[in-house]
Amino acid sequence: MTLADLNATIPACTRCPRLREYCVEVARAKKREFQDWEYWGRPVPGFGDAGARLLIVGLAPAAHGANRTGRMFTGDSSGNWLYEALFRQGFANQPDSTSRNDSLQLHDCYLGAAARCAPPDNKPAPIELANCRPYLEAELTLLRRIQVVVVLGRIAWESYLKAAGWWARLKPAERPPFGHGREHRFTSGITMISSFHPSRQNTNTGKLTREMWHAIFRRARELCS
Q1: Is CB count within 10 Å lower at the N or C end of the chain?
Q2: Where are the domains of the chain?
Q3: What pTM was computed for the model?
Q4: Rg of the chain's alpha carbons, rounded to an integer?
């Protein structure tokens, strides 16, 4: 299997009936400002450079973001934060993205997620995360040059540790703790950097500031240089 094969498979996934029903309903009802859009309404594949050294693991598509546009972190405020930071560090060719058909390209960077369907209230159930984990596991196998993994939020942190096998191999006390800006270098040579997710809940309250956010990607660039 190649990344292209994997990304062609993901949109046809039906493993989680609750999530599929929710995504289809959101795509049918739409948000008022996006009434002219034809929503994607399906599981969202990964996106980026197959030769990437940086992997970013998010939570899940936003109902009116990636569930609308069909591309990770595209069309919502979290994506605005992410692509602006990636552009600053040379991982993206432009600082924003509104559509999967725009001219955005990622360089040395790939985007994955803990869940590939938009969940109600942004809260996928444990069984839904388990159902989706094989896609992240496959990406970890296919992305052979990864040196740095940035995990956005606690769910992404746990999903990465499980997909990479560290959750099972390490005792609870040995697992690297989650916290914004925390780093852990595994014996595989990969460095994981934890970050708060750039959700409105975090950015509007000041829990995550631009300075804190940009520091994550400056460090990722240093480790990939």
Answers
A1: C
A2: 3-224
A3: 0.97
A4: 16
Query: pLDDT tens, position by position, for the chain (225 residues)?
Result: 899 999 999 999 999 999 999 999 999 999 999 999 999 999 999 999 999 999 999 999 999 999 999 999 999 999 999 999 999 999 999 999 999 999 999 999 999 999 999 999 999 999 999 999 999 999 999 999 999 999 999 999 999 999 999 999 999 999 999 999 999 999 999 999 999 999 999 999 999 999 999 999 999 999 997
CATH superfamily entry for domain 3-224: Uracil-DNA glycosylase-like domain (3.40.470.10)
Q: Which DSSP string do the residues of the chain spell out, in sequence order?
A: --HHHHHHHGGG--S-HHHHHHHHHHHHH--GGGTTS----S----EE-TT-SEEEEES---TTTHHHHSSTT-SSHHHHHHHHHHHHTTSBSSS----TTSS--BSSEEEEES-SSPPGGG---HHHHHHHHHHHHHHHHH-TT--EEEEESHHHHHHHHHHTTHHHHS-GGGSPPP-TT-EEE-TTSPEEEEE----HHHHTTTSS-HHHHHHHHHHHHHHH-
Could you tell me which of 47, 57, 42 has the C-alpha nearest to residue 100? 47
